[in-house]
Amino acid sequence: MENTKKLRSTLAALTAGSEDQLLKRFGEWLQKYSESRDTTLEAAVQVVMREMFSTLITSLRTGRYEEILVQLKNLPFDFQIEQVEAGLRAFRAILVRKANDSLEDPTSKHRAVELIYKDFDLILDSVSRLQDKMYALRLEKEIERKTAELLEAQDLYKGLVENSPIGVCILQDNQIKFANDEFARMGGYTKEEIIGMDYRQLLTPESLEEHKEGIERRQRGLDGPLTYRATALRKDGSPIEVEIHSVPTVFKGKPATQSTVRDISREKKIEQLRQSFFSNVSHELRTPLTTISGHIKFLLSGKKGKLDPSHRQFLEAASEETDKLDRIIDTILELASLDSKSFRLHLADVDMTRVTRKVANSKTPQAKQKDLTLEVSLPDGLSHIVGDERRLEMLMNNIVDNAIKFTPEGGEVRIEGRDEGSNVVIEISDTGIGIAKEEQSKIFDRFYQADSSPTRKYAGAGLGLSICKEIADLHGGRIEVESDVGKGSTFRILLPKEGRPE
Ligand code: ADP
Questions:
Q1: Pure H helices in 301-379
Q2: What are the CA-CA distances from residue 195 to residues 154, 243, 252, 262 (Å)?
Q3: Residue 432 near ligand 1, beta carbon < 6 Å
Q4: Rama region for 276: left / alpha / beta (φ>0; ψ in -120 to 50; rest)
Q5: Cα-to-centroid distance, 37 and ligand 1 (Å)
Q6: Distance between CA atoms of 96 and 49, rounded to whole angstroms?
Q7: Is any ligand 1 atom within 6 A of the Cβ of residue 397?
């Protein structure tokens, strides 16, 4: 016992003042292994290790190492325990070397080394136990931090959903499981009243009939998102127009749908007003126009007396203008009708050869006026299609009209037809001004004109092609365009023979 004590103080004396040497070795180790190039952290590590080594030297004398562990526990920063272990091992190596170099007697040497290993085994063992504890502590802190983050995010989303001006609800087993304030308010219920209600009580029978399947499929986690318009029922029985966007979700571990619901009553009202405004204005314009046009035509017929050439010229100009106005009114009425919810095509068997020839014949005078060649090439037995003849005629009419309008005098307009798989294809090509690549996707937009300047050369409202596109879409077909500026354009109309698939 006495001997051990003596040996300890010899070792402590040997090691005293070795902190610098230890730190140097530790620094080398740190450079080799540490991934962090954070110099402030390294400096801090050095400070802590210096303190630790001096405690070690004191402990060496007493054989009590608790001090070191206390120091470790109170480390002021996120210390890597592996770094501490490496420091301790470096210290042990130095100590062993010092004992070997300085002690003469082989027995003392052997005992000193044995003592050093025993002591360090004890310390390293405690350090590794401490490591487990520190790991648990860190994990606990991390969980605390993450929980706080999660709660904050939850509060944020809850606030967003609760205060949203759009209704939000979760539907499961046909029951409203969650609703925000707006959803309840829209229905005229309190939140307490609406939660637990059967969704079927919240829609009119017609809307329920129309959307039941889609809603219930999504409740079972089938299919993707669904957006639809419906008429909902308030608590007092009054209807409210809504747009609903539903996505499948999981609520308390079971399939459900999460829906956002928007009150669109105002939008619908404006839309209705817009439609009735268009159709009223157009009808109001048409009545006097028909009278004016009738009078002009009557005068031109010469039944009221022979006209001198200059009078005839004025009247002919007036007649042309009234025809143009008539066509604009037609276009506006057609757009209003295509837009209306109740719009339906009048489907029947349509002979596209007949429609094409009819349109071409009606355009011959216009083409002649501009000295254009208008050629029609249709194969015998071009298939008939299922379609709305009046609308298809309008489509052809607009495109042939444009071809004539945008082709300078002396040019050529060709209309070709062919069967192509399940489609009938009609191609209208011209040798006109052409359409720049960047314009080609825009010309089907409403009111779009490549040249819309007040000084533009070509008259028009930019509505013709948007109507054409809608008509082709309604038939399940499409229109393609190919064009080179200065060379001409080809509009290709593809219409499925069987009509639009259901
Ligand atoms: P608009 O009443 O102005 O003719 P459309 O919707 O029919 O309206 O056409 C939109 C625009 O597309 C036209 O203003 C014109 O710039 C361009 N366009 C349509 N057809 C042709 C064509 N055959 N050649 C050149 N440009 C065309």
A1: 309-339, 352-369
A2: 21, 20, 15, 18
A3: yes
A4: alpha
A5: 66
A6: 19
A7: no
- Rounded CA-CA distance 387/162 in Å is 50
Q: Which two tokens stand for residue 55?
A: 């405690």
Residue 488 backbone phi and psi in degrees, to 5 = 140, 180
> Ligand 1: which of 402, 438, 479, 491 to mutate, most ligand atoms within 8 Å of CB?
402
Task: Say how far residue 290 (Cα) sits from the centre of its chain.
Answer: 50
CB atoms within 10 A of CB 13: 14
In this structure, what DSSP letter does residue 383 have?
Answer: P
Q: Highest mean pLDDT range out of 81-95, 116-130, 429-443?
A: 429-443
Q: Give the separation between CA 260 and CA 245, rounded to whole angstroms.
A: 5
Q: Do 170 and 254 contact (CB within 8 A), yes or no? A: no
* DSSP of 46-80: HHHHHHHHHHHHHHHHHT--HHHHHHHHT-SS---
The span from the CA of 128 to the CA of 82, in Å, is 9
Bridge partners (DSSP) listed for residue 490: 429, 482
> Among 395, 465, 470, which residue has the most ligand 1 atoms within 8 Å of its CB, making it the best to mutate?
465
462 CB near ligand 1 (under 6 Å): yes
Residue type, 21: Q
CB 497 within 8 A of CB 425: no
> By the 8 A CB rule, do 413 and 428 touch?
yes
Cα dihedral 156, 157, 161, 165 sign = positive
Distance CA 143, CA 328 (A): 70
- From the CA of 444, give the closest atom in ligand 1: 6
CA atoms within 13 A on the CB side of 224: 0
Q: Which two tokens stand for residue 173?
A: 């087993």
Long-range pairs of 291-294 with CB within 8 A, sequence gap ≥ 24: 292/322, 293/319, 293/322, 293/323, 293/326
Q: Which of 25-39, 68-82, 411-425 has the lowest mean pLDDT?
A: 25-39
The predicted model gives 435-441 an average pLDDT of: 89
Atom of ligand 1 nearest to the CA of 461: 2
Backbone angles phi, psi at 415, to 5 degrees: -120, 125
| 435 Cβ below 6 A of ligand 1 | yes
Q: Coil, helix or strand for 268?
A: helix
CA distances (Å), origin 323, targets 152, 271, 293, 334: 68, 29, 8, 16
Mean pLDDT of 340-367: 89
Q: Please indicate, yes or no, whether the overall pTM of this predicted structure exceeds 0.85.
A: no
Does position 470 have pLDDT exceeding 80, yes or no? yes
Ligand 1 site, residue 489, Cβ cutoff 6 A: yes
